[in-house]
Each structure stands twice: as structure tokens, then as C-alpha cells.
């Protein structure tokens, strides 16, 4: 029942976004944003259900990711509304919103490709214990970046603010997301080195993290 409520809510938000997108008002680009946001959260649950149903839960929607995540979303809505009232022309830069939409599409597709490629090895929570079926994935998008799901989420999050033409949140999202993923990657790589040892270290030497100026955990030789 709770799953159905969340799915219906996201579907309703997506539908509202489509209606706004079809109009010619200054809220058109916000409609693009609503579609992108609702599709991102719904597909997180859907792909988890396909890939790793044993880890599936209400948290797989990522709607309650963290207080900071919800605060960031709220701040972007407030900035959009205030700037729309004070500087309406700022919210009608269609070419810039289109660039943001392309960033959003690229980021979400990359993240979902990473989830599908990793299969049951992917989990929203960093694992501290290695399961019998846990293997090191280095093929597909993992041959491009060590952390393609984080790369996708990073550019998706920034893209949402470029789409909304939110200059303050573009800077804020970039800085906060970069710091979050730097710490998350270091934490995760400590675990991966513990799980896979030299196999992961060799992979780490060959493939970049994918995020700018983030090299991952330092290993003393």
C-alpha cells in the first residue's frame, strides 16, 4: 500500500510536469524539472526491483534520502519562485534550460546503466560485508569510470539546477555534491579494497573515478 502511494504520487507529479511542459508559461521549464525529478525517483525503485529485489524497500525510491537532500530540493524551489517573481526573464532562457535537460538525461541514463550493469552487486547502501555473489564489475560503463552511478547522479543533480536557471543552487549543488561524493567514494573504496584486494587496486590504477579532482582513497605503497 505504501509503495502504491509513493508510485501514484510520483506519477501524479510526472503528469503535472507534462501539463506544465506543454504550456507556454514561465513555469514550462519547471514542468521539465518535475518530470525529471519524479522519473528519477520512480526509476530508482524500478531498476532496484529488476536488479536486486532482495534489497528492495520503500527507501529504494530515495524519497527520504536525507534531510540535506530534501533541504536542497526545497531551496531550489524557493530560489526558482523568488527569482521568477523578481527576474522573470531569467527563467525564460530556453537554450540554458535545454542544456540542463540534456545534463539531466545524460546523468540519469548513466546512473541507470551503471545499476543495470552491476546487477545484484548494486546497492543503495554501502555494504560492509561481502556476500558470496558479490563480484567486482569492470565491464560496460564501469570500464569508463570506477563510479558511474555517482558520476551520473552528480551531473543529474547539477543539471536540474541549470534546467531551472538557478544560479545560486547551481553553485551550491556543485560544491555540496562534490564534497558528498568525494567522502562517499573514499568510504566505498576502503570497503572494495578490503573485499577484492589487488584486483581492485589494479582496476583503480587503470580507470578514473569519473568525477573531477576526485581520485578516491589514497593507498600507501
UniProtKB/TrEMBL annotation:
<keyword id="KW-0949">S-adenosyl-L-methionine</keyword>
<dbReference type="GO" id="GO:0005789">
    <property type="term" value="C:endoplasmic reticulum membrane"/>
</dbReference>
<keyword id="KW-0812">Transmembrane</keyword>
<protein>
    <recommendedName>
        <fullName>Protein-S-isoprenylcysteine O-methyltransferase</fullName>
        <ecNumber>2.1.1.100</ecNumber>
    </recommendedName>
</protein>
<keyword id="KW-0256">Endoplasmic reticulum</keyword>
<keyword id="KW-0472">Membrane</keyword>
<dbReference type="Pfam" id="PF04140">
    <property type="entry name" value="ICMT"/>
</dbReference>
<keyword id="KW-1133">Transmembrane helix</keyword>
<dbReference type="GO" id="GO:0032259">
    <property type="term" value="P:methylation"/>
</dbReference>
<keyword id="KW-0808">Transferase</keyword>
<dbReference type="InterPro" id="IPR007269">
    <property type="entry name" value="ICMT_MeTrfase"/>
</dbReference>
<comment type="similarity">
    <text>Belongs to the class VI-like SAM-binding methyltransferase superfamily. Isoprenylcysteine carboxyl methyltransferase family.</text>
</comment>
<comment type="function">
    <text>Catalyzes the post-translational methylation of isoprenylated C-terminal cysteine residues.</text>
</comment>
<keyword id="KW-0489">Methyltransferase</keyword>
<dbReference type="GO" id="GO:0004671">
    <property type="term" value="F:protein C-terminal S-isoprenylcysteine carboxyl O-methyltransferase activity"/>
</dbReference>
<dbReference type="InterPro" id="IPR025770">
    <property type="entry name" value="PPMT_MeTrfase"/>
</dbReference>
<feature type="transmembrane region" description="Helical">
    <location>
        <begin position="153"/>
        <end position="176"/>
    </location>
</feature>
Amino acid at each position: 500500500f505504501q509503495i502504491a502511494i509513493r508510485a501514484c504520487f510520483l506519477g501524479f507529479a510526472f503528469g503535472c510536469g507534462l501539463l506544465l511542459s506543454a504550456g507556454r508559461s514561465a513555469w514550462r521549464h519547471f514542468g521539465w524539472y518535475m518530470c525529471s525529478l519524479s522519473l528519477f525517483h520512480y526509476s530508482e525503485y524500478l531498476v532496484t526491483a529488476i536488479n536486486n529485489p532482495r534489497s528492495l524497500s520503500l527507501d529504494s525510491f530515495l524519497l527520504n534520502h536525507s534531510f540535506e537532500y530534501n533541504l536542497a530540493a526545497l531551496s531550489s524551489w524557493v530560489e526558482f519562485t523568488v527569482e521568477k517573481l523578481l527576474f522573470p526573464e531569467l527563467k525564460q532562457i530556453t537554450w540554458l534550460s535545454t542544456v540542463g535537460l540534456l545534463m539531466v538525461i545524460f546523468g540519469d541514463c548513466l546512473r541507470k546503466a551503471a545499476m543495470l550493469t552491476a546487477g545484484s552487486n548494486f546497492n543503495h547502501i554501502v555494504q560492509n560485508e561481502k556476500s558470496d555473489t558479490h563480484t567486482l564489475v569492470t565491464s560496460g560503463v564501469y570500464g569508463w569510470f570506477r563510479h558511474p552511478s555517482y558520476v551520473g547522479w552528480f551531473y543529474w543533480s547539477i543539471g536540474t539546477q541549470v534546467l531551472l536557471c538557478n544560479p545560486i543552487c547551481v553553485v551550491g549543488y556543485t560544491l555540496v555534491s562534490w564534497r558528498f561524493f568525494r567522502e562517499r567514494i573514499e568510504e566505498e573504496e576502503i570497503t572494495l579494497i578490503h573485499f577484492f584486494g589487488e584486483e581492485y587496486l589494479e582496476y583503480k590504477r587503470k580507470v578514473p573515478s569519473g568525477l573531477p579532482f576526485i581520485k578516491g582513497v589514497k593507498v600507501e605503497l
